[in-house]
Write a structure and sequence with these properties.
disordered N terminus; single chain; flat; 17% strand; alpha+beta; Methane Monooxygenase Hydroxylase, Chain G, domain 1; Transferrin-binding protein B C-lobe/N-lobe beta barrel domain-containing protein; 14 strands; 690 residues; 8-stranded antiparallel beta barrel; Porin
Length: 690
């Protein structure tokens, strides 16, 4: 298509240098009026052509935007989503409409000036044809966008109809439930009104009360659903379904109100039956009052027993350091509190009987002896006192239960802190020494001890299992054929065997109860002061950390302390425990801390990953396959497990943590040759600083 800019066209025309007969508004003195007008017409046609091209481009962009929105329309299935897409389509239509309006003006402009411009523009037909084609294309684009909008409007209407249908069906389902409950209530009310005995009448009234409560609940649900549907009440397609649901709800509400009225009549009938029964047998009224008082007193005893049980359970709960054990006592306290509450309800029920008996006899005092009347009134007072005592007992039992619940919550929170600070094996071991450091305060105090050299740091090396060492586990007794330790002659449970202190953190290795081969001799705890754990992940930057790691292999008594290094890169951490041969400077890696993730948990920046105890392989079937000898190197296994820890210091200057690897090996009875498989655990702790 041929186009020229307005400036180029004017330059061409003004270069002709034709002499005019008169000025006629031309700036060229040699140019005639008709020539000047032809030049202006040519310029107008050229501008119209440029406008046509510009507006066609704008319309085509609007079409592309509309087509993009239209693609989204295919997967949209809610009114809100479709409405959002319609807004985009209408925005595209607005842009296309602007282009069309401008195009129409350009077209009229070209039509007005075509004849005059013919003498200047030899290819005027190309211009006019190009403008006409652009105008036709823009109109076609308008039709395409309008078609998309029409389809979107249809889809919007359909989706609203579907949405309203779903909502109203849910409302009608609740109305159906409400009507069923009303029918049950009406049946129960009819049964109560037909009853000749107060017990049956009371039972039926209770059924009706329950059914009407269910009715109210169902109607409230239906009304909530209707409120959702009302958001679409302006849509013609929705009005019918909404009105249907509203009519059903109104009808059910009316039936509920009417049934509630007849319930009151049934309750009056019950009261009349009771009065009639009491009046017909004065002695029965007296007996009922005395029986009610005695029953109320008995319920007080039950409630007070429940208080004792709840209080004992709550007090006992505080003696446990495991949430599972404490939960049992909390459950006991809960049951006791419920028993006390039930006893209170029972006492309140019999008080109503005693009070009614007293009222009836008072109303019929002329027919009742003064002694009988006094007896019944006293029984009523006794029942009233019993209810007050039961109320107090129920409150005390509930308070004890709440106290036990709070103790459990506190313990669970403490356990979560300990679980971060030690290995899973030690945390789960029933008698583990780590439970002595359940509170954050106890761990902070331990850290202070090792920081002030009350407990010195362990040097790199081995804390051996011999009599001269603090790691000694006691002599071995093999009278039964199994190795049994006499811990009374070794290091006592709870003794700190190794430690590492840093400015904000550290760790300790502690002696466990250690008797049989299945027992793990030592436990490890990572320590902080509870204040300076790193909270801001942004301060954990790429860095290298160096320190020590202490650990026991296979659950044994000795503890090895090695050098350890960690590397932090982005959100990852990895490290190794190693030793350097002083003579050859060769490095031996004992533990690989594989790449783990750095995350924020409970407000503390920590990390977790997998660990390989590469320097301490084991033979799982040492006796059944190798008769007690070590397996060939290629058959040996490397213990694997996990490590965890956290950073300490305001700038993450330190890190501290624990690791563990659990695996099975065989032991053999030296007398019977019996072979059994035991669980071995290699575990330890590490601390390092930048």
């Amino acid at each position: 298509m041929y186009t020229k800019s307005t400036n180029v066209a004017l330059a061409l025309l003004f270069s002709l240098g034709i002499t005019a007969c008169s000025s006629g508004g031309s700036e060229n003195p040699g140019q005639s009026v008709s020539e000047y007008q032809a030049e202006l017409a040519a310029t107008a046609v050229t501008e119209a052509m440029n406008t046509a091209n510009t507006e066609l481009t704008a319309a085509q962009k609007a079409l592309l935007d509309a087509q993009s929105a239209y693609e989204q329309l295919k997967s949209a299935n809610t009114p809100a989503a479709i409405q959002e897409i319609l807004l985009k389509l209408n925005a595209s239509r607005t842009e296309a409409l602007k282009a069309n309006t401008s195009m129409e003006n350009a077209y009229q402009k070209s039509q007005t000036n075509t004849q005059k411009a013919t003498s200047v523009l030899s290819n005027i037909d190309d211009y006019t044809r190009g403008i006409s084609e652009s105008a036709a294309k823009i109109k076609a684009i308008m039709l395409q966008i309008d078609s998309m909008i029409n389809e979107g409007n249809t889809q919007f209407t359909n989706s609203i109809q579907k949405e309203v249908e779903t909502i109203t069906q849910a409302a009608l389902a609740q109305v159906t439930t409400a009507n069923q409950e009303i029918n049950e209530a009406q049946t129960a009310i009819q049964n109560a009104q037909n009853a000749t005995g107060s017990d049956l009448a009371q039972n039926e009234v209770a059924k009706a009360v329950t059914a009407l409560a269910q009715t109210r609940s169902a109607l409230e649900n239906a009304k909530r659903e209707l409120e959702k549907a009302n958001a679409f009440s302006n849509e013609t397609a929705s009005v019918s379904a909404i009105n249907e649901a509203k009519s059903a709800i109104d009808a059910a509400q009316k039936a509920l109100d009417e049934t509630q009225t007849t319930l009151g009549q049934a309750e009056n009938h019950v009261t009349a039956l009771i009065r009639q029964e009491i009046i017909s047998n004065i002695s029965l009224a007296e007996n009922k009052a005395i029986e009610a008082a005695n029953t109320a007193k008995a319920q007080v005893q039950i409630a007070q027993t429940a208080v004792t049980q709840a209080t004992e359970a709550a007090n006992k709960a505080t003696t446990f350091n495991r949430s599972g054990d404490m939960q049992t006592q909390v459950s006991v306290a809960q049951v006791a509190a419920e028993n006390a509450q039930n006893a209170l309800k029972a006492a309140q029920t019999v008080l109503e009987t005693a009070t009614l008996s007293a009222d009836v006899l008072t109303d019929n005092a002329n027919s009742v002896s003064a002694t009988t009347l006094a007896t019944v009134q006293q029984a009523m007072k006794d029942a009233q006192l019993a209810v007050e005592q039961a109320q107090l007992a129920a409150e005390q039992a509930q308070s004890a239960y709440e106290q036990a619940t709070q103790s459990l919550a506190t313990l669970i929170q403490a356990e979560q802190g300990l679980q971060k600070a030690t290995t899973t094996y030690s945390f789960n071991r029933q008698d583990s020494v780590v439970r002595d450091y359940l509170s954050a305060e106890s761990r902070a105090a331990k850290l202070k001890d090792i920081q002030t050299d009350k407990i010195p740091d362990q040097n790199v090396g081995i804390c051996a299992n011999n009599r001269a060492s603090i790691c000694y586990a006691g002599p071995s007794n093999t009278e039964t054929g199994w190795s049994v330790r006499d811990q009374s002659q070794g290091t006592a449970r709870g003794t700190t065997l190794v430690s590492k202190a840093q400015a904000y953190s550290g760790y300790v290795g502690l002696r466990e109860t250690y008797i049989n081969q299945e027992d793990t001799a030592n436990a490890f705890i990572a320590l902080t002061d509870g204040i300076n754990e790193t909270k801001d992940k942004n301060v954990v930057t790429d860095a290298n950390y160096a320190g020590t790691v202490s650990y026991s292999t296979g659950g044994g008594a000795p503890i090895a302390t090695r050098l350890v290094s960690f590397n932090v890169k982005d959100d990852q951490i990895s490290g190794k425990a190693y030793a350097i041969n002083q003579r050859t400077q060769a490095e031996t890696v004992y533990i690989n801390f594989k790449e783990g993730n750095i995350t924020v948990n409970d407000g503390t920046v920590g990390f977790r990953g997998e660990v390989e105890i590469s320097g301490h392989p084991y033979t799982p079937n040492q006796y059944t396959q190798y008769d007690g000898a070590a397996a060939p190197k290629e058959e040996q296994r490397i213990p694997t497990g996990s490590y965890q820890g956290f950073f300490a210091g305001p700038e993450a200057q330190e890190l501290v943590g624990t690791f563990e690897a659990s695996y099975q090996t065989e032991v053999k009875n030296s007398q019977t040759n019996e072979i059994k498989t035991i669980e071995n655990v290699t575990q330890g702790a590490f601390a390092a600083s930048k």
